[in-house]
Amino acid sequence: MNAPPTPPLHVLLVEDEALVAIMAMEDTLVCAGFRVTVTHNGREALEADAKDRADLLLTDLRMPVMDGKVLIQRLRGGRPGLPVVVVTGTPPEGGVASIQSGDPGRTQLLVKPILMADLVVAVHWVIEPA
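RE: above sequence
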């Protein structure tokens, strides 16, 4: 007897940049087997996550309304260990450690512009067991 198929992991994609960049990331992740919800700022992301909990957060840092660092802290505050991939054009001083803030979740930092293949590698890295 076959086990029921495992549902795809849900990625919450938070990006305020050009629509083309968002669509490229979304398409890449869907083709890699993920389910993706797209939002454009931290507040929208929190609302989307409350309705449909994400397995992984993919976010920019500099966004209107609520920046990515605050978003990460808010989501990880209720869900320590949430895997996070940050894609940003302005990496923070201190790199991943400044984003991690002592949380046990895996975090990967990619600096724009990125290759979509690197995005998929980063997503797989943060969801792999340590």
